[in-house]
Structure prediction request, 164 residues.
Amino acid sequence: MKYVLDSSCFINMSSLDFEECEAYTTPEVVKELKDFKSKALFNIINPEIREPRKEYVEIVKKKARITGDLNVLSKTDISVVALGIEIEGVVVSDDFDIQNICEELRIDWQSVSGMKIKKSFKREKYCQACGKKFSNDYVLNKCNVCGHKLKHRVVKTKKINKKE
Prediction:
């Protein structure tokens, strides 16, 4: 089995569940590892470090634009999910936004610590001041009616039937 490990794997992992498998991660994840424990786990697991190809990054960004996740996913998050698509691996993360976009893209995922979403969700952009709603691909972060900063909120959820 191939696993793509997010930063949370090295930060939250309590056992070496991925020691005897094909483990991968991205250069962005490596940059996020700051403390001794996470760096030590990284060295023990010794995942292959791969940058996902641009076409897979674009697949993730396109879907994230539709779901409203693009503004909450970091470059690291996007790289992990894109690599999961590219190598057809299981994305391992405790990050709810990563889990959500994996659900939307129908990518297998699992949690490290048991922290996982129970529902997938979609967000929308809106103005908290005047109430105007915007499409998720609206590029400005200010309301074109009143000028206030736009916010995101969850507008649609769907129960996940994930096997343990």
